[in-house]
Amino acid sequence: MPHTPTTTLAVESLLGRATKADIRRDPFPHVVLRDPLSPALYEALATTMPTAEYIGTRIGKPITSNERYNYMSEHILRDDDMPQVWKDFVTYHASPAFYREFLDLFRDDLIAALPDTENRCGPLRSLRVGRRNHDTFDTHDILMDCTAVINSAVTGRPSSYRGPHVDKPYKLFGGLFYMKRPDDDATGGHLELYKYRDGAHRFTTSPSEYGDNRFDIDPKYVEEVGTITYDSNVLVMYPINPLALHGVSVRSVTPHERRFVALVGDLQHPLFDLAL
Fold first, then answer.
1. Higher confidence at residue 136 or residue 7?
2. What domain of life does the native source organism fall in (predicted)?
3. Is residue 205 part of a domain?
4. What is the CA radius of gyration of the chain?
5. Could you tell me which residues are beta bridge partners of residue 258?
6. Residue pair 246/191 in contact by the 8 Å Cβ criterion
7. For the segment 209-260, what is each residue's pLDDT rounded down to a tens digit?
8. Distance, CA of 101 to CA of 13 (rounded, Å)
9. How far apart are CA 256 and CA 154, in angstroms?
10. 9: in domain
């Protein structure tokens, strides 16, 4: 069970110190920010992050090897046992203020990759921002979330939670805030960045060894071009487009959990089609 810190810490934004100069554009626009949170705030979050067992018990999901356990903002905000530091953190990172920070950083890159964006969803700076599982598309245009995520311990054999894929086309952005434990000595679990190989490409249309939905791609159609190491207090964030291919490297057998926060912004309609 999370342990509530005895001190109150001011909210900090994961993008608070980000600038356009931080954007990397190979193989697609993204930022990698190291130590975006102060040591005090990061420690308060890291020492009280829910475990897979904690999340699984509350959402009714049994613990299996290298599975994903999501504790969404609505779960956290309704959980009396979660400390206030987490409630403040998820509230801000699913707010209009954080959405504006994302746009200030990435709007130009988003429009450059998907010129039809504002015809599909409306002017980005005018979108009504709500929170996923709290608000609806009846009254809001984008539903954001800030989710505590655990990939459970790896048992039996090394495995990757998910191979090469593109995030769903109705998502405006993706973010991963890594929170690796100091004692985690597992190998792998890093974020791998890919680009398409020349020639035809095929996304899966049914469950297979490559994934469970049509946004996963057979690895033979891509090549790895970069790796972002899974570590503590590291943010990776990017606008979503058909070229934003990524996956998770194979993680060794380990009793340790892989811990991160997922940041998303869902739109009602897709911004692109995977006609590849």
1. 136
2. Bacteria
3. yes
4. 18
5. 151
6. yes
7. 444 455 888 888 999 999 999 999 999 999 999 899 999 999 999 999 999 9
8. 9
9. 8
10. no
d(CA 262, CA 255): 22
Token readout for 56 is: 């699984």
For residue 117, the enclosing domain spans 24-267
- CATH number reported for the structural domain that contains residue 187 in this entry: 2.60.120
Flag whether 4 is in a domain.
Answer: no
What Cα–Cα distance (Å) separates residue 252 from each residue in 115, 132, 191? 41, 33, 15
pLDDT mean over 110-117: 95
Position 210 scores a pLDDT of 40
Let me know if residue 195 belongs to a domain: yes
**CB-based burial, 178-204: b 16+ in 10 Å, e otherwise:** bbbeeebebebbbbbbbebeeeebebb
d(CA 92, CA 41): 14
Whole-prediction pTM value?
0.93
User: What is the count of structural domains for the chain?
Assistant: 1
